[in-house]
Amino acid sequence: MGRQPCCDKLGVKKGPWTAEEDKKLINFILTNGQCCWRAVPKLAGLRRCGKSCRLRWTNYLRPDLKRGLLTEVEEQLVIDLHARLGNRWSKIASRLPGRTDNEIKNHWNTHIKKKLIKMGIDPITHEPLNKQASSNETSSPAENLSQPDNNHEVKETDAVVNSEENSRSPATENSSGEESLLLDSLCSDDSLMNSLWLDETPLVEALWEMDTTPIAETETETENTKNEMNFVPSWEDNCAWLLDCQDFGIHDFGFNYFNEIESKENQH
DNA sequence: AAGCCGGTCAACCGCCTCTAA
DNA sequence: ATTAGAGGCGGTTGACCGGCT
């Protein structure tokens, strides 16, 4: 018996989402929360696959998303995490607040990869390219096979064992002065590094504090207040882009809901 | 102005993992 | 222990856009 398709392919719309569809999905999730994705399209009145809805929400509509290019700090963190975790984009993304695996994966493929190559670093192994070339000359194909993208397959359970040697990660080794300083500050923070391995607390707070680049914030006082609180940007803040990008009114989404929540929280 | 080309990124596809029955 | 369904993940695709000729 073959596996059932994740959704009824007949009558399922594909391709870019329209503003109307976004609106429906947002409204539905705001009202009902994230529940069974399979049921979402039907309940929300969308002719979409449940998976497609989930993807659209997590990668684009989620109000806690940061928009825009990755900052220098984020980029360096991605490089370092990639050196340790390989292409586990979701794991990497979980360490960067407001960033999605898809976003990081795209950024890696379009920006970081090239940047590393330009710097003479192999984006897969994080080893210097010339060093690799010479080692390839000396090692047999069989040996190469025995080390398939080594860093890619770093088991998280091995992480603690490897942490010592990783404390001098290839990425760190090959970073320019400014970047290595930045990374050193990351790596020398034991609790921070432990959190990388233990899969518990994400780097959210730490990174958020480090990331001094305002997202769309001009009022420094507000920004400072946010940093003090280990602030995760309010839904309202992060929904602002929606209003910029799409021709929606805030009331169309029932975003007052968030205002209510926030004002309640402020009262406490 | 039109065509080409490369870069970017949203979205899809198919496999994997987890979990409940 | 097994199985099926649902969600999650990573690789890939293709539409779109801006720059160049």
Q: Can you put this structure into words, describing what you see?
A:
This protein is mainly α. Among the domains are: 19-61, Arc Repressor Mutant, subunit A; 72-210, no CATH class. The chain is built from 17 helices and no strands. α4 packs across α11 (177-187). The N and C termini lie far apart (56 Å). The chain binds a DNA duplex (21 and 21 nucleotides) through residues 1, 3-4, 6, 14-17, 36-38, 49-52, 54-56, 59-60, 87-90, 101-103, 105-107, 109-111.
Tag the structure with descriptive keywords.
Homeodomain-like_sf; nucleus; transcription cis-regulatory region binding; single chain; Arc Repressor Mutant, subunit A; 17 helices; disordered C terminus; disordered N terminus; mainly alpha; DNA-binding; repeat; 268 residues
Brief synopsis:
With 268 residues, this protein is mainly α. It has 17 helices and no strands. Residues 1-5, 137-183, 185-193, 195-236 and 238-268 have low confidence and may be disordered.
* Tally of helical runs: 17
Q: What spatial form do the alpha-carbon principal axes imply?
A: elongated
| DSSP, total strands | 0
- Radius of gyration, whole Å: 22 Å
Low-confidence segments, given as residue ranges, are: 1-5, 137-183, 185-193, 195-236, 238-268
Average pLDDT figure: 61
Work out the strand percent: under 5%
- Written as H for each helix and E for each strand, in order along the chain, the element string is HHHHHHHHHHHHHHHHH
Q: Helix- and strand-based class?
A: mainly alpha
Distance between the termini: 56 Å
Kindly state the percentage of residues in helix: 55-70%
Major sheet size, sense and barrel closure: none
